Amino acid sequence: MGATKEQLFTDLQTKLASYAKALAHPARIAILQQLAKLERCVCGDLVTDIGLAQATVSQHLKELKKAGLIKGTIEGVRVCYCIDPEAIGLVQNHLNVLFDSFKSCTTDECC
To answer: SS3 string of 39-87?
Structure first.
């Protein structure tokens, strides 16, 4: 039997893949941008702001929350969401580590 993901990939690689998966839809990017723009928790306003169906927005929020990029709290019958600044900082740091590891090709042998 083959090796598992935990055996093949580092923790950083697994986390980056999880973040990339969560960010791999334009609706999720739009949701994050809207939450960042408002600079507060949002309770139910995203459907109007984003222009997608409630069920669609809810599914995208679920994926963003699963990846740890946003936080959600229940207030009565509504769920309020906001960006998790600590998680966003981690994503930025992890991406910096990844991109800093790339070296420019300085020889004529580069493609």
So the answer is: CCCEECCHHHHHCCCHHHHHHHHHHHHHCCCEEEEEECCEEEEEECHHH
Q: How many helices (H) and strands (E) does the chain have?
A: 6, 3
User: What's this model's pTM, rounded to 2 decimal places?
Assistant: 0.80
Mean pLDDT of 99-106: 77
**Confidence class for position 1, pLDDT limits 50, 70, 90:** low
Residue 26: CATH number of its domain: 1.10.10.10
Q: Is residue 109 one of the residues assigned to a domain?
A: no
Crossing angle (nearest 10°) for helices 26-38 and 54-66: 80
